[in-house]
Amino acid sequence: MDWLEFEKEALAKGYKSVCGVDEAGRGPLAGPVCAAAVILPEGVIIDGVNDSKKLSEKKRESLFDVIREQALSYSIAYATVDEIEEINILNATMLAMCRAINGLEIKADYAMIDGNKIPPIDIDAECIVKGDAKSMSIACASILAKVSRDRLLYKYAEEYPMYGFDKHKGYGTKVHREAILKYGPCPYHRKSFLKKLYK
Questions:
Q1: Residue 51 in marked binding region
Q2: Where is the RNase H type-2 domain (predicted)?
Q3: Is 2 annotated as a binding residue?
Q4: DSSP-assigned states of every residue in 113-144
Q5: HSE-up of 15 (CA within 13 Å, CB side)?
Q6: How does DSSP assign 96-112, residue by residue?
């Protein structure tokens, strides 16, 4: 497999600054959705990088700084719980991706988006389904987004230890669902995601 196939195709079309974009936290019951955008130097493959879901937390943490050091530019952005509630999770995810792309210090002229929907951005882009397992840039973005969001949930766990955010990162595990029913939601919970729980 060529980790740089999509990057090479974009560069061959004449684009100069190609970014990979991915998100973390679309499905949890709590916390924001996080997106990252990464521009790597041409031809660079970072050893050990893979789809963040296939890596251990320890491995993701060790790669986090390596990616930031090697990237030409990277950006990490969020859409808040309030924004998720107001505009729904899909639109909030697109918003976080836009913020990540717009936050790059080196402006990208082409974006490779993990998934099947392109956010409303002012540069050319393509969707790559399961892109975090096919493109080095997207895989790097998936790691930055996942680690950044996980670190935030550890902070929430200190504030609200009864929910176990440090264990499940806001996802709807049995322990998490039981804690919500016992203690009620906290300000970091996505109320619209809890409707089924209360039924």
A1: no
A2: 16-199
A3: no
A4: EESS---S-SSEEEEETTGGGT-HHHHHHHHH
A5: 22
A6: HHHHHHHT-SSPPSEEE
